[in-house]
Amino acid sequence: MPVELRDAEELLERYGRWAQDRYRKQRCASAEGGYQAPTLGRDEERPLSAPLPDWNAMQVQRALQVVPMQFRRVLHAYYIPQRLPHHAIRRQLKITSGTWERSRLEGLRQFSNIYRLRYLT
Question: How many Å apart are CA 70 and CA 11, to the nearest integer?
């Protein structure tokens, strides 16, 4: 991941946790009843930060809406928790892994530019 896109990636990860937090969290059944789902962190050495405040999440949502659809659907599948994992969505859409990663990087670049121009200046 390029250094200049790490802030955008962190912002989208926090937005994904905010979007997931909108729904009632469920637990898997187990004999002991104490199963806890693993954390969402992609990098185990990096601690998870808190979800976004509502006003900031709306800014992220508005910036995401401006990103072209071909990149937005990749960002949405990758960063916002879905019923299926992002690699399963990639296979359903019949996109190669190289194209998927290039689309994710280009989408992050466009999202970063849009968010920075609209909300950080």
Answer: 20
Structure-block tokens of residue 12: 């989208």
| Short-list 112, 9, 16, CA closest to 1 | 9
Residue 40 one-letter amino acid: L
* Residue pointed to by tokens 């790490």: 6
Dump pLDDT digits (tens) for 15-49.
988 887 555 555 555 666 666 666 655 555 555 56
> What is the residue-wise DSSP string for 53-119?
PHHHHHHHHHHHHHS-HHHHHHHHHHHS--SS-HHHHHHHTT--HHHHHHHHHHHHHHHHHHHHHHH
